[in-house]
Design a protein that fits this description.
With 453 residues, this protein is of the alpha+beta class. The chain contains eleven helices and 18 strands. The protein has a domain of 136 residues. The radius of gyration is 26 Å and the shape is globular.
Amino acid sequence: MTNHASLRYEQQLSLIASDEHPDRAERGVPDTRHRVLPVAAIYGPNASGKSNVLNALVWMRYAVLSSFRRWDPDGGVPRRPFTLCTDPGAFPSTYEMDCVVEGTRYEFGFTVDDRQVLREWLYYFHDGHRRKLYVRSEENPVPSFGRWLTGRRKVISELLRPNSLYLSVAAAQGHDRLGALYRWFRNGLRVASDSDFVSRLNYTVDLYRRQEGSSASSVRAPLLELLRFADLGVRDLRIQEQEEGVKEEQQRIVTALREAVGGHVRVDSLPRHQVQVEHRTAEGIFSLEIDEESSGTRTWIGLLGPVLTSLQQGSVLCVDELDARLHPYLADALVGLFQSAETNPYGAQLVFSTHEASLLGHNARTELKRDQIWFTEKDTEDSTTRLFPLTDFRVRDVHDNLEKRYLSGRYGALPFLDEDVLRHLTEEVSAAGGARGAGKTTESSGGNSSGVP
């Protein structure tokens, strides 16, 4: 990824294992000796760009799913370039991903500027050879095709706009092979962040309510197990559809806002259900509205659907600030669900950003290995983000205390606290307090005194 938010220069995040650990839920890469990791964690100080690494993956997914169906044909490309420079629009942005879909390894990427798609390419690998499916460029906007891509190639090309991806158009036209990769971006790459809590809750509740067919027991039972596993005192969920009048009122508000500001207000989703959380006490079973629960309980419930679906389907889940509202033990346990081959038999992957250093220590229930740890740092001169792995350092998983070394600054990626600024602040606070005290009027009467500021 290049030129996305604070990622001005090319950065790479790899989930290829550099060490072999039989107890991890690793999976082989077809036609290679490589194995992929089940978990990768990104550490770094606030504002160092951790979230932007995940957001680059999110934006790539957004472009694949939306460039043809939703982007304004004359509106250019709604990208997020690095803006702390004199001419942000002069530099293109590039996104590239190497992934395995239905047993086939693909290399897909594209380059965009504010107006159009400058380049797009898709290759697949067979018997160790890289084979072209299609390539387009600014000089040759009509894609050139490899002989391994069949189907309605020219018809799709005729529908292609300068600001849409060929992959997006092909999926909309029902192309079988390219549609499989498109569906992977839609269903195989999932995202969880604070901004999409309502949609995650809706998804979890929809899974929980499934009653028809054999899928009911395979979904609801493990959801309930995970709900009780967290030791939050929760027994069950009670779910009711929102009243029709409430739904209509919510939609009227959204419509009015969009009309007032010209569509600049984005509402991803609205609560479709009234959710209550059941607790068992010595006096019986009582329910609380989900809004009355702690933020940690709400976060865990909202994560249940994406976590369970990822584990059952072997998909990728990206979580921003995993530790934001979860107890360290609970965050540790969630990571363990993906790390363990027993609970992750289909090769699901968890990529998350965090400040929780305890996951690096020997006391963690799920201790991360050195090839699973990444860091972000922001350059003090130009505010750009650098992403780098712990494997850049000489580390021994068994003997080295990674938590202690990280917190002591051995790997960088820690906030710099300027002690001079703190000393000056102390002096100013003391001076202000002294001046305030000097301005007080004190009256003594009968041994009592009162200060009037």
